[in-house]
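This follows on from our talk about sequence and fold. I would like you to pick a protein and set down its sequence and fold. Go ahead and set the record down below:
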Amino acid sequence: MTGQTAKIASRCACGSAAVRQLNQFINHGELWWDAEFSCDSCGTYLCEQAGQGPAPDDVREALLAVHGPARLRLAEPVSSLVPALKAFREAEAVSLSQARELADRLSHEGVVGTLSEMQLLRTRLRLRGVPVDIDG
């Protein structure tokens, strides 16, 4: 399992300082996320939310703010981006035109997201024979 965590200061119902921990990770080849809350003063600990698939915007934004974006790019020129189109369609559940846009970005400025998102895409693209690497 691989992933990232962002810890954000929060306030507990007891009035004390607390921590909200936001996680995104790859588990058994799938993207997962969760949000946990803990307060050392009163002992409250709970899993606020969790799920498989893309993380909610607040979780993604916190991870990107703490760790910065990861950029997925072609590691070497390819003769065809068709395998990349197929991988994007499967992994991202996007339309053909959106997959074309992602493939075009992959071969130019790169596709940007959280490290976990880019690691999962890298795995799926490499399985299709697309040579990619992650920057940042």
In short: Residues 86 and 99 are 8 Å apart (CA to CA). The radius of gyration is 17 Å. The chain has a mean pLDDT of 93. The first helix runs from residue 57 to 67.
